[in-house]
Design goal:
295 residues; alpha/beta; seven-stranded mixed beta sheet; 17% strand
Length: 295
């Protein structure tokens, strides 16, 4: 069996061999704890019939653990300097394909059709670059990919926001956007000491299980998210004041917004963070009816 990459000594050996230096702009922090990597893989519940999409493999520490459990691993790496390193560290595995591309610009569905056509169980598992965590997760969800779910390491603060409940300080438009598509749970906290170099923040692993259909039924999805974002425009403001200030033409639509809140059974003096996703759906659907079109 290949010697695990994710130990401090082996990681240093690989970095020294290739003279690799970390690029802060790419958020490169490599995991050097094999036990944590194995737990991440366990949370993804892979089998030899699972296809995995990984983003940001680094020197292959998580990639090799995935390859031992899954049928095939497709890994996106943006840093060209890592390609020869990955070719070396993962040379014993025939079920890995490294794609040199920015995942945010990739047609992931096309790659799934080409690389994972015969595989019906697909998971995303990654130690995400922290500076682009949210755009990557939102792309994976809004592209409506045929995935079972997502297990990713990210900044603890972002994990807290993603899995937050109504009425808590972390609850916001990001919580609602992700919980609309998935069931979200933080499954593990990870100290900064298990990375090389050590980041300035603590990390967490979240598991997002994709819903068969969105959590709520909305008449106009883009308008629903517009209402949600507007409701959190300024956290100290009431929902009424936020909608007036942050919806297009909100000031002109003040009476209609008040009516929509009343018809939805929502006190206009409440703050956005107290509303459930069901209340936001009821409100946005009612506003669509009242406005007759988007605001």
């Amino acid at each position: 069996m290949n010697k695990d990459i994710a130990t401090p000594a082996r990681t240093r050996e690989i970095l020294n061999k290739y003279g690799f230096s970390f690029k802060k702009s790419l958020g490169q922090n490599f995991l050097i704890d094999t036990n944590i990597l194995r737990r991440i893989v366990d949370f993804a519940e892979l089998s030899n019939e699972t296809g995995v999409i990984e983003i940001g493999p680094g020197i292959g520490a998580l990639t090799e653990q995935l390859a031992r459990q899954a049928k095939k691993v497709i890994s996106f790496e943006i840093d060209q300097r890592l390609l020869p390193i990955l070719a070396d560290t993962l040379s014993l595995y025939s079920n890995i394909r490294i794609i040199h591309q920015d995942v945010l610009k990739a047609n992931i569905q096309h790659i799934i059709d080409e690389e994972l056509a015969e595989i019906h169980d697909i998971m995303v598992v990654a130690n995400l670059p922290y500076y682009v965590t949210t755009p990557i997760i939102m792309k994976l969800l809004t592209d409506r990919l045929p995935i079972r779910g997502i297990v990713v390491m990210l900044q603890k603060e972002v994990a807290d926001r993603i899995s937050a409940s109504p009425g808590t300080k972390d609850y916001g438009s990001l919580s609602i956007a992700i919980q609309y598509y998935t069931k979200a749970e933080t499954v593990m906290n990870v100290p900064r000491t298990v990375f090389m170099p050590q980041p300035n923040v603590d990390s967490a692993v979240i598991r997002l299980t994709k819903r068969e259909k969105p959590a709520v039924e909305v008449v106009d999805e883009s308008f629903f998210f517009q209402v949600v974002r507007a409701s959190f425009g300024q956290r100290r403001k009431t929902i009424l004041n936020n909608l007036i200030s942050h919806l297009p033409n909100g000031k002109q639509q003040k009476e209609n917004i008040e009516r929509g809140l009343a018809d939805s059974g929502i006190d206009s003096k409440r703050r956005g963070e107290t509303l459930t996703i069901q209340e936001f759906a009821a409100l946005s659907n009612r506003l669509v009816d009242i406005f007759g079109k988007k605001v």
